[in-house]
Write a structure and sequence with these properties.
The complex is a heterodimer of chains A (about 270) and B (about 220). With about 270 residues, chain A is an alpha/beta fold. Chain A has a domain at about 115-180. In chain A, about 35% of the residues lie in helices and about 25% in strands. Chain A is built from nine helices and twelve strands. Chain A has helices at about 55-65, 95-105, 120-130, 135-150, 165-180, 195-210, 225-230, 250-255, 260-270, and strands at about 20-30, 30-40, 45-50, 70-75, 80, 85, 90-95, 105-110, 185-190, 215-220, 235-240, 240-245. In chain A, β6 and β7 form a beta hairpin. In chain A, α3 crosses α4 (about 135-150), α3 packs parallel to α5 and α4 (about 135-150) packs across α5. The longest helix of chain A is centred in the C-terminal third of the chain and has 17 residues, at about 195-210. With about 220 residues, chain B is mostly helical. Chain B has one domain (about 5-220): MetI-like (MetI-like fold, Orthogonal Bundle). Chain B contains eight helices and no strands. Chain B has helices spanning about 5-45, 50-65, 70-80, 90-115, 115-125, 130-160, 170-185, 185-220. The mean pLDDT of chain B is about 90. The chains are: A alpha/beta (about 270), B mainly alpha (about 220).
């Protein structure tokens, strides 16, 4: 395992970033997907990640969700180390127990929804609260129905995913993730697998989240207009690094780096 | 057929029907052991502990590569040399259950591997424990694609129960043999045994297919 002795046991300071990547490296064999990434996300901040495919965008989310292990650096959530844990005054790789404890702060929505096909929409939402959080069925149902109402899916709560459209499935998936009451929500290309006419119903739900809830959100997207509209900050990834970042008006309106300009004009032509 | 005696057939039928009961009990009990143990073997092959995985995998290969009848003999005749004295029934159930659990573990493995990777990731994102992932998410989805294979082995174990006759379990073949040697007539008992096997195997295969369709519908797959 990589040396993390130089990293702090926890991050304090005001305000403490909700998420902090410190020199995080991820590689597959000789291919480096993320190269000593430093990224802080403030509580309540909405950050979008854009960039060409293969730039490491999705990997950022997957590592934060602990779906993949990192090869270097440390990720902190709410000041506490996520990928590591303190032991005898130093950081060691996180145990399963530690991961489960810290992971509770994070929720994720996937490109392909990944709803449980053998459960109805409501059961999908209740599953985590009942099994993992230990809520009573009644509490979990109330919480889930409230969220399904919020995403406009209460009318379909007893349907299995196979009976729902992609947009509907994604809205249920958002409700399912929110039912765990995470502090940080991750959206991994949540509209990429959708037909164009239903993208709006999913982006509207995310807009609602941004305006009504004080969630910290990290979103990987190919929808530049959407990212521009709702983000507090946009990060342009290139070759496993943040090539350029800033407020959306600045990054989209007046990109400084040549690669950002190239990418944005290529995307514009494609539309 | 020239010499077929109906009165003899009717006379031996009650004994054969009783033996059919024993055959069914043996098949179902053996299968019950195999269904549970097979799942255990399938899961054991997926633990992150390399030695466990390796030993279990070799064990499964070993059992699958040696004849069932040898395993039955081993449990029944060799067991006592190690102080394990079991009745024919107990020996038979252990041998046949163990044998089929290895086949079923492969069926389960196929079912588990057919579950999309995204399902594991969604379960992780909900912060489930490994046990919860298997119990609530993976196994319910792994079973429907495994049902066809599981059904085949149910019929298979039923047809393999005659091997238990070699250690004296009074199932159909054992009983037919006894009837034959008592009366010096083998045509009727063996023919009836064949018909009984057919009469159970064929509808069972159909029922399994119906059950599979029902389960898929019920799980919304």
């Amino acid at each position: 395992m990589h040396d993390v002795s130089a990293f702090p046991l926890e991050i304090s300071g005001t305000p403490t970033p909700m998420v902090s990547f410190r020199k995080v490296t991820k590689s597959y064999g000789t291919l480096t997907v993320l190269d000593e990434l430093d990224l802080d996300i403030a509580a309540g901040e909405m950050v979008s990640i854009i960039g060409p495919s293969g730039s490491g965008k999705t990997t950022v989310l997957r590592m934060l969700m602990t779906l993949e292990q990192i090869n270097g650096g440390v990720i902190y959530v709410d000041g506490q180390p996520l990928t590591h844990m303190p032991k005898n005054g130093t950081l060691v790789p996180a145990s399963q127990k530690h991961l489960r404890k810290r992971r509770a702060d994070i929720g994720m929505c996937f490109q392909h929804f990944n709803l449980f096909p053998h459960m109805t929409a409501l059961e999908n939402c209740m599953e985590g609260p009942v099994q993992v959080l230990g809520l009573s069925k009644k509490e979990a149902r109330e919480r889930s129905e409230e969220l399904l109402e919020m995403v406009g899916m209460i009318g379909k709560k007893d349907q299995h995913p196979s009976r729902l459209s992609g947009g509907q499935q994604q809205r249920v998936a958002i409700a399912r993730a929110l039912a765990m009451r995470p502090k940080v929500m991750l959206f991994d290309e949540v509209t990429s697998a959708l037909d164009p006419e239903v993208i709006g119903e999913v982006t509207n739900v995310i807009r609602k989240l941004v305006s009504e809830h004080n969630l910290t959100m990290l979103m990987v997207t190919h929808q530049m207009g959407f990212a521009r509209d709702i983000s507090d900050r946009v990060c342009f990834f290139y070759g496993g690094k943040i090539e350029e970042q800033g407020p959306p008006a600045e990054l989209f309106g007046n990109p400084k780096k040549e690669r950002t300009q190239q990418f944005l004009s290529a995307v514009k032509e494609a539309v | 057929m020239f010499d077929w005696k109906w009165d003899f057939t009717w006379e031996i039928l009650p004994r054969l029907i009783q033996a059919t009961g024993n055959t069914l009990i043996a098949a179902l009990a053996g299968y019950a052991i195999a269904v549970v143990l097979g799942l255990g073997l399938a899961l054991a092959q997926r633990t992150p502990y390399r030695p466990v995985t390796l030993i279990v995998r070799e064990f499964v290969e070993f059992i699958r590569s040696t004849p069932l009848i040898l395993q039955i003999f081993f449990v029944f005749y060799v067991g006592p040399q190690f102080g394990i004295r079991l009745s024919p029934w107990a020996s038979g159930m252990i041998a046949i259950g163990l044998h089929y659990s290895c086949y079923l573990s492969e069926v389960y493995r196929g079912g588990i591997e057919s579950v999309a990777k995204g399902q594991w990731e969604a379960a992780t994102a909900l912060n489930m424990t490994t046990a919860q992932k298997y119990r609530r998410v993976i196994i319910p989805q792994a079973i429907p694609p495994a049902l066809a294979g599981m059904g085949n082995y149910l019929v298979g174990i039923f047809k393999d129960t005659p091997m238990l006759s070699v250690i004296g379990v009074a199932e159909l073949i054992h009983t037919a043999n006894a009837i034959g040697s008592e009366n010096y007539r083998y045509l009727e008992p063996y023919t009836m045994v064949g018909i009984i096997f057919l009469a159970i195997s064929l509808p069972a295969a159909g029922l399994i297919r119906l059950f599979e369709a029902h389960v898929r519908r019920k799980l919304g797959l």
